[in-house]
Design a protein that fits this description.
CATH architecture of the largest domain: 4-Layer Sandwich
Oligomer: single chain
Strand content: 15-25%
Order of helices and strands: EEEEEHEEEEEEHEHEHEHEEHEHEHEH
Shape: globular
Radius of gyration: 20 Å
Largest sheet: 7 strands, mixed
Number of domains: 2
Number of helices: 9
Strand order of the largest sheet: 7-8-9-10-11-18-19
CATH topology of the largest domain: Metallo-beta-lactamase, Chain A
CATH class of the largest domain: Alpha Beta
Helix content: 10-25%
CATH superfamily of the largest domain: Ribonuclease Z/Hydroxyacylglutathione hydrolase-like
Length: 342
């Protein structure tokens, strides 16, 4: 029986011919990293390979590592296997990994979204025989509205809060969501203040990407200065003593999970905006069709439901594989947010 080009084992997604892993969740000798989120770029690998713009991100988060930078569509060959990185659109510098050997092509998406958010390099479908896709939001219930409408709502919410003399506290993870929010906030309404974890990450990215001005919140920041403005903070800051400086304030979260009202109640926030850095149901289906693939492997998300739909309704050879990737609830991500302000 022919050995698959990529296999899933206890350490991660492995290419035996090249002796290379992709987004390994345990320490390995050589690992290709799709993006900087903690569940995909873990500490302990001997050698990292990633996109040029992701290098400062993972160095900031992982410290002194050995890393090789690659550009979009740049091919590199390891023991006869050809690899290349292609924009995934998930967050800044996020990649899909194309793997080719003896005419057979596999693509691993990592995390991805199909809507161009104006900051992350736009997603590009890549033709292949086997497509390994995330399906974080692989249910028909998840259908995103255009982000222009979402940001119109966010800015209107901020403006209303300002008129009522309240500070707007908007939660989003320090890498990815925070920069997307920052990019599209209407600075004519007021100032944008940031939690230290978000400011630290944004400073790393400013030489590469264009962002509005922000002001870091410190111990010396006065409550009266913040009032009526907007504060970007990681979810881990919610409920802590840090937020008392914002009183009176209104809280909101921007996430695909805000599709469900119960998610907002569980997170104890006042307002939820449906804004995801992952593909919705339609985006997943359209992407699979665009790759012209024959086989689909569904990972991290609603894998069973999604793969069954692909098999029974669309006729794909689809199956599932388990990984150790997580969506925004990742405890490791929150620890990184906390650690980056110490």
């Amino acid at each position: 029986m022919k050995q698959p080009l990529l296999v899933f084992n206890k350490k991660g997604i492995y290419c035996k011919q090249a002796d290379v892993y992709i987004d390994a969740w345990r320490p390995v000798d050589k690992c290709i990293i799709t993006h900087g989120h903690a569940d995909h770029s873990r500490w302990g690998h001997k050698q990292y390979i990633t996109h040029t713009n992701n290098v400062p991100i993972i160095k900031h988060r992982l410290g002194d590592i050995t890393v090789t930078a690659k550009e979009w569509n740049e091919t590199f060959i390891i023991n006869g296997v050809t690899f290349s990185l292609h924009p995934a659109g998930h967050i800044v510098a996020s990649s899909q990994v194309r793997v080719e050997y003896k005419g057979e092509v596999w693509v691993f998406t990592g995390d991805f979204k199909t809507e161009n958010d104006g900051i992350a390099e736009p997603f590009e479908p890549v033709s292949c025989h086997t497509f390994i896709t995330e399906c974080t939001f692989g249910l028909p219930a998840f259908k995103w509205v255009p982000q222009k409408e979402v940001f119109s709502d966010i800015n209107s919410w901020w403006n209303t809060n300002k008129e009522e003399g309240k500070t707007s506290v908007l939660f989003g993870y320090s890498l990815g969501k925070a920069q997307r929010l920052l990019k599209h906030l209407d600075t004519s309404i007021g100032k944008i203040y940031t939690h230290g974890a978000i400011e630290n990450m944004t400073e790393i990215l400013r030489p590469i990407y264009d962002f509005p001005n922000t002001e870091r919140i410190t111990r010396d920041t006065k409550k009266e200065d913040i009032k009526g403005n907007i504060v970007l903070a990681p979810p881990s800051a919610h409920g802590g003593t840090w937020i008392r400086k914002m009183v009176p304030f209104v809280t909101a979260s921007a996430s695909g999970w805000m599709t469900f009202r119960g998610a907002r109640r569980r997170r104890a926030i006042d307002k939820g905006f449906v804004l995801s850095d992952h593909a919705d149901w339609n985006g997943l289906i359209e992407t699979i069709k665009a790759t012209n693939c024959e086989k689909v492997i569904a990972t991290h998300g609603y894998t069973d439901i999604f793969s069954r739909y692909l098999r029974e309704e669309l006729g794909y050879d689809a199956r599932t594989e388990e990984t150790q990737y997580e969506e925004d609830s990742s405890e490791t991500e929150q620890k990184l947010d906390n650690a980056s302000v110490k």
